[in-house]
């Protein structure tokens, strides 16, 4: 399928699909005419990328863990280093949450609210 069809099926703009390709997340073939050609599995890969982005992972982290992702949910095959990567990302997210909670507490204090 061409990029327009993948965009329509996945609901992801063609510019984002090209960005995913540039980031090494999506690998289309090139037809004789030079157009990007995607297989049916590309729809699942795009959905996996979207789910991992929604979880707050960077494209760099997604590139590292994507080979170990299965299904649209996605689920993980715990390949070498993937659990350590995900544990590190969870710790980073928890620290960001703690920082936001401190900021919220300070702002609420300025407003006389708890």
From TrEMBL:
<dbReference type="InterPro" id="IPR000551">
    <property type="entry name" value="MerR-type_HTH_dom"/>
</dbReference>
<dbReference type="InterPro" id="IPR009061">
    <property type="entry name" value="DNA-bd_dom_put_sf"/>
</dbReference>
<keyword id="KW-0238">DNA-binding</keyword>
<dbReference type="GO" id="GO:0003677">
    <property type="term" value="F:DNA binding"/>
</dbReference>
<dbReference type="InterPro" id="IPR047057">
    <property type="entry name" value="MerR_fam"/>
</dbReference>
<protein>
    <submittedName>
        <fullName>DNA-binding transcriptional regulator, MerR family</fullName>
    </submittedName>
</protein>
<dbReference type="GO" id="GO:0003700">
    <property type="term" value="F:DNA-binding transcription factor activity"/>
</dbReference>
<feature type="domain" description="HTH merR-type">
    <location>
        <begin position="1"/>
        <end position="68"/>
    </location>
</feature>
<dbReference type="Pfam" id="PF13411">
    <property type="entry name" value="MerR_1"/>
</dbReference>
